[in-house]
Amino acid sequence: MEQNFITLSETTQTFHLHNNEISYIIKIEEDGVLNHLYFGKAMKHYSGHKTYPRRDRGFSGNVPGNLERAYSKDTLPQEYSTHGSMDYRLPATIIRRENGSNLHDFRYFDYQIKTGKPKLEGLPQAYVMAEKEATTLIVVLKDRLQEIYLNLTYTIYHERPIITRSVSVVNQTDESITLEKIASLQLDFRNDGHYDEVISLPGAHLKERQISREKIHGGIQNFESRRGASSHHMNSFIALVNHNTTEFSGPAIGMHFVYSGNHAFQLEKDQIEQLRVLVGINDYNFSWLLAANESFQTPEVILAYSDQGLNKMSSTLHHLLRERVARGEHQYKERPILVNNWEATYFDFDSKKIEEIVDEAAALGIEMFVLDDGWFGHRDSDNSSLGDWFEYEGKLKEGLKGIADYVHKKGLQFGLWFEPEMISLDSKLYQKHPDYLMQEPNRTPSSSRDQHLLDMGRKEVRQNIEQQICAILDEVEIDYIKWDMNRSLSDVYSLALSERRQGEASHRHILGVYELIENLITRYPKILWEGCSGGGGRFDAGFLYYMPQSWPTDNTDAVERLKIQYGTSLAYPISSMTAHVSAVPNHQTGRITSLKTRGDVAMSGVFGYELDLTELSEEEKLIVKEQVDYYQKIRPLIQFGEFYRLNSPFEGNLTAWMFVSCDQAEAVVLMARTLANAQPVFHEVFLTGLDKNACYEEQITKQRYFGDELMNLGVNVPDFYGDFQTTFIHLKKV
Ligand code: GLA
Questions:
Q1: What count of Cα atoms within 13 Å lies in the side-chain half-sphere of residue 709?
Q2: Going by CA atoms, what residue is nearest to atom 3 of ligand 1?
Q3: Following CA atoms 716, 720, 724, 727 in sequence, which dihedral angle do they give, to the nearest 10 degrees?
Q4: Does the record's keyword annotation contain Hydrolase (predicted)?
Q5: Could you state, in order of their start, the residue ranges of all structural domains in the chain?
C-alpha cells in the first residue's frame, strides 16, 4: 500500500516512515519478528539489500519455532521486545498471566495506516491541528500463544523531523493479565558508532537540569525518577549523541517522555556493542491489572532527530512543544511581566504590604501581581491548611476579592497560588476526610514539608478539590494561577484499589491530576496557568500540555540560573521557562550580583520580579523601569524567537546564548562572564542564525555589521571588570 509518508513494501517487507528530513524503517523479519532497521537522515528509497546480518553466537539461542541457529532475538535489533524468548537484553514489556507465566513471544499480526494522529485519552500528548500534518502507522503484534495484542503506534509529522511513539496492550484472553512493565518506546541500534554518548538532565531541588554528558558503556545505564513526579533529580528527557556532536554539528536524537510521573530511560549496550534504549513508565512500584477485554495505553515519547547538532535538535523540540504540545489561549500570547510576593514576604503579609507592592509595581510598569502561598485556611507557615482552599479570613483586610479588585484597578492582572494535590494534617479537610490522604491504613506515612499527598486517583478527592478551587475562581477575578506541588510521593497506597491493584496507585494518581487540571483549564480558558513543583520538580513535556509555562527552579541566583536555564533550553522552549529578578544577597546562595546581571539573566526567559519592590532605592527603581520597558520591546523575540546556545556555562567562565526573530530581522545576544581574573584571555563569540547578507545595527553603540561578519569573525566579549558581569547585544537589520 502506497501512502505519502508511510509505505509498506511487499517486496522488502518493510514499513518506511519518511519525510524530507527523516526516515524510519521497520522490517518484518522471518516468522514475523519485528526488526528495527533504521532511524536517521531521510532516504527516499530502501532497496532491501542491506538487512541485519546473521551469525550463530553461543548462548544466543534461536527464535522460537525456527531452527536457524544464526537467527536470534538476542542480537536482532527489534521494535519491541519481551521476556522469555532468548532476548536477554532489557525487555520493553513484562506481562504476567494468571498461571504465573510471564513468557511471551510477540510477532507481527497486522497493521493500519491512518492520516493524522489519534488522540490518547486522558494523557498529555503532541497533537496535530489538521489531519494532513501527520501520518500514523499502527503495527499490531500478537503473542504466539495468547490473545494478547500490542499496538505499536508511530506518528510521523510531515514537516518536522519528529516521530512520536506509544504502545497499547489489548487483552483478549478470558483472564486477567498483569502488566509488570510496559515501555512506550524501544529503539535498538547496531554498533555503528553513531550514538556513543548520552546527555541527560540530572539535578536536585535548587539545581535542576544540569547538563550531564557521558559515554555509553557496556552494561546498563538508567536515567529515572522514582519520586512519583518527573522530578528535580532526573528530568524526563535524554539525547543520544556522537562524541563529535557539538551544538552545531553531528547527529542527535532528543527523547521526551510526555509524562509527569515515575519515568525510566534505560540504555543497554549488549554483548556485541549494540545499543537498546527503552523509555516509559518506571516499572518501580508499578503494575497494572488488565481484565479480559481491557486495554492499557502508555504515555507517548517524542523523538526529534537532528543531523546538525544540539541547537537544531532543541529548535525542533522548542517548536513542537510550543506549537503542538502547549495549548490554550496563552499558547502564543506574550506573557505578562509579573511580580510575585513569595521572596518579598513569604507568609508574612497583610493588605497594606500587598497594596504597597502593587502600587510600586504599577508605577514601574509591571503587568501582573501574583499572590503566592499563605492566603488560604489559616496558613502562616508551611505546616498547615493545604486542602483548605478558602480564604484566610482576616489576613487580607479587604479579602481576596478586595485585593484582586485593587490590583485590577491599578491596571495590573491578578494571579494566585494553589497547591491542589496536597493535604496538611492541620486542616479542615483532614479533620473531615482523613482517608483522603495517600497512606496504608494504620501505618504512619512520611511527612515532607509537613504535608502529605492527596490520593488523586480517587474521584471524590479530585471533586472536592475541584469544587473548592472553582468556588474561588467563580468569586474572584483571577488571570493567572501558579499550580505548585511541594513534595515527592511516598506511602503509595490507595484505599480505592483492591490489593492486586496497588501497583496502579501512582500512575492513577498522575492520571487523576491530569483529569483535574483538564477540567479546570477547560472551564477557565482565559486563565494563564503556570506549573511549579518546589521550582522545577515537574518541568516536563507532559505538564506543558496543560500549562504553557513552568517555574524552572526555586533558585533565583542569576549565576546559578545560567546553568539551569541553559540546561532547560536543551529540551524546552523559552516561552515555557519563567525567570524572576530577586533580592540580594540571594536567598538561596547568599551571592550578591548587580540588578543589571539579575535582569539580563531573567530577561532571557519569561520575565518577572520576586522581591519587595518597596525596598528598592530610587536608582534601582529607575533600572527596574528600564528593564520592564526594554523587555516589553524584546519580549516577542525572547519568548517566540529562535534560540541558540553559543557558549556553555558548564564548560567555562563565559556563557552566551542568543535569540533571533523568525524573519532574522532582529537578534538579542546575552554574554555573561562568571568570575573575574587578572590578565584575562580575550574572548570572542560567534553569532548564528542571522541573515548572512544583511547589515545589522547594534542598538546601543549604533555600530553596523554584516550578518556573515557577525557569524564568521564574531564579536568581542567586552572587557568585563569584576565578577558576575553580563551584557546584551541587540541587533536590528537596517
Ligand atoms: C514552592 C515554590 C515557590 C513558592 C513556595 C510557596 O517552593 O516553588 O515558588 O511558591 O512553594 O510555599
A1: 11
A2: 534
A3: -50
A4: yes
A5: 338-640, 647-733
Amino acid 2: pLDDT? 39
487 pLDDT band, cuts 50/70/90, is very high
Of the CATH numbers 3.40.50.1110, 2.60.40.1180, 3.30.70.250, 1.10.10.10, which one belongs to the domain with range 647-733?
2.60.40.1180
Comparing C-alpha atoms, which of 486, 338, 371 is closest to residue 419? 486
- List, for residues 74-132, the tens digit of each pLDDT value: 999 999 999 889 999 999 999 999 999 999 999 999 999 999 999 999 999 999 999 99
Quote the ligand 1 centre to 366 CA distance (angstroms): 21
What pLDDT band is residue 635 in, cutting at 50, 70 and 90?
very high
Separation of 532 CA from ligand 1 center, angstroms?
Answer: 8
Q: Is 174 a catalytic residue?
A: no
Ligand 1 pocket, residue 551 CB under 6 Å: yes
Beta pairing class for 578-582 and 606-610: parallel
CA atoms within 13 A on the CB side of 267: 23
pLDDT at 1 (0 to 100): 39
Distance from C-alpha of 562 to C-alpha of 559, rounded to nearest angstrom: 5
Amino acid identity for residue 32 in this structure? G
Phi–psi pair at 575, nearest 5 degrees:
-65, -15
Report angle CA 27, 29, 30 to the nearest 5 degrees. Answer: 160
Q: In what order do the strands lie in the sheet with 14-18?
A: 6-9, 14-18, 22-28, 34-41
Averaged pLDDT score across all residues of the chain: 97
Q: What is the mean pLDDT of residues 691-712?
A: 98
Query: In the chain, count of helices (H) and strands (E)?
Result: 12, 38
| Residue tagged active-site, from 188, 484, 557, 612 | 484
Query: Distance (Å, rounded) from C-alpha 87 to C-alpha 71?
Result: 11
The per-residue pLDDT for 99 is 98
Q: For 534-556, what is the mean pLDDT?
A: 98
Q: Is the CB of 342 under 6 A from ligand 1?
A: yes
pLDDT tens by residue, 66-84: 999 999 999 999 999 998 8
Tell me the average pLDDT across 156-178.
Answer: 98
Q: Is the CB of 532 under 6 A from ligand 1?
A: yes
Q: Could you tell which of 342, 384, 485 is best to mutate to test the pocket of ligand 1, judged by most ligand atoms within 8 Å of the CB? A: 342
CATH architecture of 338-640: Alpha-Beta Barrel (3.20)
Q: Is the pLDDT of residue 60 over 60?
A: yes
Using the mean position of ligand 1's atoms as its centre, give its distance from the Cα of residue 308 in Å.
38
157 is written with which cell numbers? Answer: 509529522
Q: Residue written as cell 510576593?
A: 341
- Is the pTM of the predicted complex or chain greater than 0.70? yes
Alpha carbon nearest to ligand 1 atom 2, residue: 534
Is pLDDT above 50 for 727? yes
Interhelix angle 558-569/595-602, nearest 10 degrees: 10
The question of whether 188 is a catalytic residue gets the answer no
- CA atoms of 381 and 66, how far apart (whole Å): 67
* pLDDT of residue 3 exceeding 60: no
CA of 418 to the centre of ligand 1 (A): 10
Q: Which of 388, 426, 554, 612 is catalytic?
A: 554
Whether 418 lines ligand 1, by a CB cut-off of 6 Å, is no
State the distance from the centre of ligand 1 to the C-alpha of 234, rounded, in angstroms.
20
